[in-house]
Hints:
Elements (H helix, E strand, L loop, with lengths): L1 H26 L9 H16 L3 H16 L2 H10 L9 E3 L2 E3 L3 E3 L10 H6 L4 E7 L12 E4 L4 E4 L7 H7 L9 E6 L10 H12 L5 E5 L14 H22 L5 E5 L5 H13 L4 E4 L20 E4 L3 H15 L4 E5 L5 H10 L3 E4 L1 H6 L2 H16 L5 H9 L1
Parallel strand pairs: 3-13, 4-7, 7-8, 8-9, 9-10, 10-12, 12-13
Antiparallel strand pairs: 1-2, 5-6, 6-11
Helix pairs in contact: 1-2, 1-3, 7-8, 8-9, 9-10, 10-11, 11-13, 11-14
Amino acid sequence: MQLHGTCKMRLRSCFCVAVSRFFFNGLVDFGGNRPSIKARFMLYSLARPALFSLDPEAAHDIALNSLSTVSKSRFATKQLERATGAGVPDLPVTCMGINFRHPVGLAAGLDKDARAFPALSALGFSGVEMGTVTPKPQPGNEKPRMFRLVEDQAIINRMGFNSGGVDAFLANITKDDRTGVAGINVGKNADTPIERAASDYVNALQRVYSQADYITANISSPNTKSLRDLQNANFLDNLLLDIKQAQLKCEKVHGYYVPIALKVAPDLAEDEIETIAELVISHKFDALIATNTTIERPESLKSTQKHQAGGLSGAPVKEMSTKCIREFYRHLNGEVQIIGVGGIKTADDAWEKLVAGADYLQIYSQFIYEGPSMIKNIVNGLLSKVNQGGFASLSEAISAARN
């Protein structure tokens, strides 16, 4: 019976690999033709049920392996861009001094080891944040550690910064022929005491600096023991000081400035938001990413997986994240920009976060459910709001809506 079950699992995995390859090969038309929007939607509609029949982490690995394969071929990457990314309109925004083609980027977590940056950029994201990467390799938490809440359009994960380490990460990425904006998210190793966390962040920052367009310090994952303690003022002031000093030293060594952002949790009290805002202003951080996953479980959750431990992301986090953005915007007074993350699925969701105070946006969980077409749908929807209002730019439209 055990053999029979193992064989079934292997056959199902092989089928899902085949479907995944079919999906990406369907997007990468070697004849040079771009599939229609309807054809692209149908391809993803076929691939998703097959992938969703697998364990979530196994499905993630299959999809990432396919994207990694595409990334190794300039021709295949270009064809993928023709099929998807080229259909996303320009809607320029500037955040952290970086000019983004449009306001929708990929949040950290999908590509932890920088294996698929070219293909992910080709899908249409204006920026791809890779990681979280830790200084040393570490396996993360025990499996299973990722769970779909399909009825809730959500995901719970307790990955625990599984990482190949910074050496493996850097072996996978280069600035040669890079077309998109590359963010690199760094964190501490699980076995590093919280009192010495700064050394891990400084180490990782120094190592990835030359390959990053911006760097994010992740202090808000709920899946590494005591990590969120770094958000407390007792730790945060010295941590931000050490990170900022390391950034400025790297600027002198390399001769150019790489912006740095701080990623925070949505589970913050009003006084904690005020303190964090004061500290990122005083230490001259370039941006704040709001928000990471939540440890709260809204009563509205329907899935039987809702009691799993870990961070909840996706649709149920939308309102909590937007509220957090709004509060940070009030306290930051325009001195530090905000990258909004959490539950974005539609152009209206994106607009809500921009009006609340975000200058740029990232998606992840909803992308897993909706596929690459949502990037174009969001940007098109935002472009319509700009045009309907008679504004010259998205930033002008946002400014008018905030006043």
